[in-house]
Amino acid sequence: MIVRSLAGRDKGRFLAVVSASDGFVFLADGKERKLASPKKKNEKHIAPTKTVIDISNLTDRGLRTALQNFQGGQDA
Fold first, then answer.
1. How distant, in Å, are the alpha carbons of 2, 57 from that of 5?
2. Residue 62 CB coordination number (10 Å)
3. Which of 43, 55, 72, 75 is most buried by a 10 A CB count?
4. What is the pTM of this model?
5. 12-37 pLDDT, tens per residue?
């Protein structure tokens, strides 16, 4: 799922959820936060979007492209 950050240094940016557990989500953007080392963030600090992408076969470059295309076409 693609989410928008509501707090922190990445406020306003779109990120992809890699996994979730115990009230936290692990987010990646393919540039600053790679899929191999996602950022841990509280669920209260993100806003979900209606877009879901499959990251199982995605590389960091593919994730950057998907997020760039999403951000260009959305007003969230």
1. 10, 24
2. 14
3. 55
4. 0.84
5. 999 999 999 999 999 999 999 999 99
